[in-house]
C-alpha cells in the first residue's frame, strides 16, 4: 500500500513515514500543498494523510481542489484542529476520515486499512481468492490454511494482486504499491519478487500478461 503524507512538521512528517514503513507500508512525505498536488498528479497512491495547517496554501483548500478535479483517492485528515466545526468542514470538503493530533499510530493505521477496504469494496479485513486468504489486519497470508511467510515487499504485492484477483494489475500499479521514493529500485526488482511469490504460491497462481502486468488467479488449473 502506498501512502502520501502531507505534513509540514519536520519531526512528525519523517517520524510518521518511518513508523508506517516499519509497519510495511510504502510511504512518501511532502511538506506543502504544491508538492502534494504534483505528487498526486504524477504517481499512484492508495491513501493520502493530510494536515490542514500547511504553509502557504492550507490542506482544506488543497482537498477541495482535488475533489473538484475528480480525484477519488481516500483522504484522512490528520490535524491539531479538533473542534466539531473543523471536523465538519473537513468532511464536507471531501475527507473520508478525520483524526486529531495527538494520535496513536495503531489507530491511524487501522483507519487507513478501513479506508482502503471501503475504497476497494471489501467490508472485512479478510481478502480471499480461492484457497488464498489474506488478513489485512494481521498482515498475513495463508494457502489452504497454512500461513506463508512474506517479506514486506511480497506482502504489498500480494495485497494489491488479491484485491483485484482474476484481473490484470498493471506493472506500474504494482511498483507504486510496494516502493516509495526512497527505495533503491533495480530494473528487475518487481520480477524478482514475483518469482519469489510464485515459489510460495505455485507458478500457475500468478500469470504474466506481457507488456502489461500480472494476474493473481483465484482457482488455477491443476
From TrEMBL:
Gene3D superfamilies: 3.40.50.2300, 6.10.250.690, Winged helix-like DNA-binding domain superfamily/Winged helix DNA-binding domain (1.10.10.10). The modification 4-aspartylphosphate is found at residue 51. The keyword DNA-binding applies. This is DNA-binding response regulator. Pfam families: Response_reg, Trans_reg_C. PROSITE patterns: OMPR_PHOB, RESPONSE_REGULATORY. GO terms for biological process: regulation of DNA-templated transcription. InterPro entries: CheY-like_superfamily, OmpR/PhoB-type_DNA-bd, Sig_transdc_resp-reg_C-effctor, Sig_transdc_resp-reg_receiver, WalR-like, WH-like_DNA-bd_sf.
Amino acid at each position: 500500500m502506498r501512502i502520501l503524507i502531507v505534513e509540514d512538521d519536520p519531526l512528525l512528517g519523517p517520524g510518521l513515514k518511518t513508523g508506517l514503513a516499519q509497519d510495511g507500508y510504502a510511504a512518501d512525505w511532502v511538506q506543502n500543498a504544491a508538492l502534494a498536488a504534483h505528487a498526486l498528479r504524477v504517481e499512484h497512491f492508495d491513501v493520502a494523510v493530510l494536515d490542514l495547517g500547511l504553509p502557504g496554501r492550507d490542506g482544506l483548500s488543497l482537498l477541495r481542489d482535488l475533489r473538484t478535479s475528480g480525484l477519488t483517492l481516500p483522504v484522512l485528515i490528520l490535524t491539531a484542529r479538533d473542534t466539531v466545526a473543523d471536523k465538519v468542514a473537513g468532511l464536507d470538503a471531501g475527507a473520508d476520515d478525520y483524526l486529531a493530533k495527538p494520535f496513536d499510530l495503531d489507530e491511524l493505521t487501522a483507519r487507513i486499512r478501513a479506508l482502503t477496504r471501503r475504497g476497494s469494496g471489501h467490508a472485512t479485513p479478510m481478502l480471499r481468492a480461492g484457497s488464498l486468504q489474506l488478513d489485512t489486519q494481521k498482515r498475513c497470508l495463508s494457502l489452504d490454511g497454512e500461513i506463508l511467510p512474506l517479506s514486506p515487499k511480497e506482502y504489498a504485492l500480494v495485497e494489491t494482486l488479491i484485491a483485484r484477483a482474476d484481473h490484470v494489475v498493471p506493472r506500474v500499479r504494482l511498483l507504486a504499491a510496494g516502493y516509495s521514493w526512497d527505495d533503491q529500485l533495480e530494473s528487475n526488482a518487481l520480477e524478482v519478487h514475483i518469482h519469489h511469490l510464485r515459489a510460495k504460491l505455485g507458478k500457475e497462481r500468478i500469470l504474466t500478461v506481457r507488456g502489461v502486468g500480472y494476474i493473481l488467479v483465484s482457482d488455477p488449473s491443476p
